[in-house]
Specification:
5-stranded mixed β-sheet, single chain, 8-stranded parallel β-barrel, alpha/beta, 14 helices
Length: 450
Amino acid sequence: MNSKTSFNIGNIRIGGDAPVVVQSMTNTDTNDVAASVAQCKRMIAAGAEMVRLTVPSLKEVEAMRQIKDRLRAEGIMTPLVADVHFNPKVAEAMAAIVEKVRINPGNYVDKRNFSQRDVTDSEYAAAVERMALRAAPLFEICKAHGTTIRLGINHGSLCDRIVTRYGNTPNAMVQSALEWIDICEKYDFHKVVISMKSSNVHTMMEATLKLHEEMEKRGCTYPLHLGVTEAGNGVEARVKSAAGIGALLMMGVGDTVRVSLTEAPENETPFAHKLVNAVRTLSPQSCLVEEKKMIYEDAEPDYETWLAKAAALAGYCYFKYHIQDVQLQNPNFSAEQCASLEATILQACRIKMSKTEFISCPSCGRTQYDIQSVLTLVKERFPNYPGLKIGVMGCIVNGPGEMADADYGIVGASHGLVCVYEGKKRLTEAVSIEDALDRLQSLVEHAAEK
């Protein structure tokens, strides 16, 4: 019999039959305690049931302690999550302070590069064992303090060892997650949430569903966090998020969600709640599928709720029935609005690319330039290049990896400067935004001429 793991993260129940939890992440400098507390309060007022903050180094640990203390002093008990990259010691320090620590398996892998050769079974097993030993202190601290761990498996940051054996694929993401489930269970640690993130809706869905299936086979299903990473902003980002998150929720998969927007963080949770609530009203019978076309009629008066329903159904129908077209009808919106949403849904599901696709992160305290305004400039300059993907990323931590699916991109460097990339290859040193846009222009025009 399958066991659906359920536990508390602070005052929030997650997993099992508990309601879906909506969360978000700050984009303030974590060391700016006052600004971070103020933004946390705005996000919570907007509906965030869990709040994540970046902790890139040990110097932010004390700031996180102060942020938590100030919120608790005001009676705000919303669970806090520390987002940790690179340094396991930061995760261990934060595990004694916050309710949940998000780690990337890459924090614990060997630095040795396996990408140019095969890895023998014994080498592979030894590398996993070394990774487990490095993580052992974190498990002990988490058990002592009742802290949850989120295993953040990102398509763009899989380790060389995994990619060498399984390719840069959804299955590689699953294998990485299963390795860590084994490690957690080896140390009798079970307060685990897992996310399978990608900017590609298909990849995110395939990896999440396969992991869910594998956990069911093992007889223990841990809570799953859903999100389409680097979704961008505006309608396109909401559609992309709804197509992936909404479709999985329709399939009964997912315990907590984040809609990642390159906008103010307090914009994320209202749409996320609309999406979660919209999915509750849907079933596969909510639309028709005829000759590979999804036909959906609705009189929903709220545009974002209608968008959420239509995109979730399309994501579901594409995954289940491989639809190739979408037809929407709603008497509350014009034919032009219906056609525009149809095109945006088809693009989000990568069925038909009718314009440029933009991949951009929501930013966080590591971002040192105005990513929201730069994304607007990029979208204005490169709107109509079907099949072209451009990334706008906050920093080096996730930037080059998570936008690897993009043809070209901008990645934040420092203090208002950025670097220009082609795929994962960095083309420039840190340059001004204006210079970066000009370099992108020349790259795009040169590619268009070929």
